[in-house]
Write a structure and sequence with these properties.
The protein is an alpha/beta fold. It has helices at 14-26, 48-55, 87-92, 112-118, 155-173, and strands at 6-12, 30-37, 75-79, 95-100, 108-109, 123-130, 140-147, 192-193.
């Protein structure tokens, strides 16, 4: 990396977003300019907004990336952010990455863990990919896969496991990021689910079958 710290913004929610933001905050090679939390923040996970305020990192209060006022940045990282980033913003950044809870190109879109369990998958994954104006279809930077157990796993079990795998993938990938050449996704293997599909999840719609 260059001697000048890379400017970074983190967009997203929850525990993994906090860990990612904290990594950049502590890194002498990066300058965390701001965080953009999902607003309203979910109540079932830790608050990225509160973490940023405690760390005295600027926060975009209403949660929209268009309200960022830090100028062009070298890197933007999305960790379960809830808005589709438009081409204008993507083009203003040196690089934009997303951490997605699936083995892309499979399970693009929403609720990837729910759908993997609904479909009886035995393997799932987490992917770091470059963001394009499409939905979860950008070139893959890094990926890992892990076992899941649809006969007894609840969505919350896999989600919590995915946070740990996501952190491992992120922390192992970042030191090598500048040397990694992203790989285009195989469109012939792609699958996608939208919010409109969620009614078909049945007992897998919520964090637990009982709650669904």
């Amino acid at each position: 990396m260059s001697e000048t710290p890379q400017s970074v913004v983190v967009l997203g929610k929850g525990t993994l977003a906090i860990r990612v933001a904290g990594w950049f905050f502590e890194s002498p090679e990066h300058d965390l300019k701001a965080v953009v939390p999902v607003i309203p923040e979910p109540t079932w996970t830790e608050s990225l907004e509160q973490w940023a305020r405690d760390a005295k990192v600027p926060v975009v209060e209403y949660g929209h990336y268009r309200d960022l006022d830090v100028g062009p940045v070298d890197l933007a990282v999305s960790v379960f952010y809830d808005k589709i980033l438009k081409a204008e913003f993507i083009d203003s950044c040196g690089r934009v990455l997303n951490i997605h809870n699936s083995p892309l190109p499979r399970y693009r879109g929403v609720s990837p863990i729910n759908w993997a369990l609904k479909n009886g998958e035995r393997m799932h994954g987490v992917t770091i990919h470059e963001i394009t104006p499409g939905i979860d279809d950008g070139p893959i930077v890094a990926q890992l896969q892990y076992s899941i157990y649809p006969e007894f796993d609840e969505v919350v079990d896999v989600y919590n496991r995915a946070l740990e795998y996501g952190w491992t993938l992120f922390s192992q990938t970042m030191p090598n990021l500048d040397r990694i050449e992203a790989t285009p996704q195989d469109e012939s293997a792609a699958s996608y689910y939208s919010t409109a599909d969620n009614d078909a999840l049945g007992e897998r719609r919520g964090f637990t079958r009982a709650a669904s």
